[in-house]
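Before anything else, study the sequence and C-alpha cells given here and see whether the fold suits the sequence. Record follows:
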Amino acid sequence: QVQLVESGGGLVQPVGSLRLSCTASGFIFDNYAIGWFRQAPGKEREGVQCISGSDGSTNYADSVKGRFTISSNNSKMTVNLQMNNLKLEETAVYYCAASQFYCSAYINLPRRLTNYWGLGTQVTVSS
C-alpha cells in the first residue's frame, strides 16, 4: 500500500522557519521524483520544490529561491522541506507527492503528473 505522510506543519510568524517532513512507503523511492506542493484557499495547487529519487537533483519555484531547501534520505524514504523567512502569503496546505516524471516537468504540472499524493499538512503564517 502506497503512503505519503506529511508532518511538521503549524503556526509560524512571518520571517519564521518551519521544517516539513514526508515519509513514503509502498513504492520504489529511487524511481520517483518527490515534490512539495501547496494550495492556498481559492488558489491553484502550485509546485514548491522537487527532488529526484534517483540522483538527488532538485527543482524549485522562483518564489522560494534562497529560502526553502529540499533534502531526502533514500534509505529512510523521507523528504524534508526546510522553509525559512516565511511570508504571510505562504499560508497553505502543503502536500508531499510522488511522480515518475522528471522534476523539471513535474513541478509545473502536479495535477497531471502525480502518481501518489499525501493528505497534506497545514502551514499558517500569521503574526
Observations:
- The chain is about 5% helix and 45% strand.
